[in-house]
Model the fold of this input.
Amino acid sequence: MPLSDLQPAILSHMSALVLAGACLVALAIAHITVLRLGRADVADYHRKPILSPWERQAILQLQRQLPPELYLCPQVRLAELLAIENSDRKSQLRALNRVASKSVDFVVIEIATGDPRLVIELDDRTHKRGDRQRRDAFVDDILRQAGIRLVRFQPFKSLDIRPHLGPENATKPGVRVAGA
Done:
């Protein structure tokens, strides 16, 4: 067979080999990409304390002040404290999104009913930042609107919550800064 007759067959085989090689390379790239993307969604989770050093000291002081019918809950999401009522589903979801990622340091609840009696915030130096002040004003406003009493404490001040625990205070929403 003359060489000129073999050229189309050789070119055909070479084209098939090049195409197969390109497909293998493309598959390898796709496989690596999928592995990397899949791995990006997987995180290594580790345990961490839910209370800061000041919060750990505060919880001991606060618990000693509570009568047996009250219970202290740390790190409570605002969404757990508030019922959001709105006839418009979109507005209701928007309102939920505004509170879902926010939490308060402590909530005193009545054990028998689960009702919040008092919210306690520990205002460390981060509360002086502009973004935190806006967040605090928002929290103050929605707790006042919901009729939930809030007391804020400054660092190194007395954490006396007894004056705020009486039933007469449960119906008086508002913000009080203690030890200011």
Q: What stands out?
A: The beta strands are 70-77, 103-110, 116-122, 149-153, 174-178. Residues 150 and 175 are 5 Å apart (CA to CA).
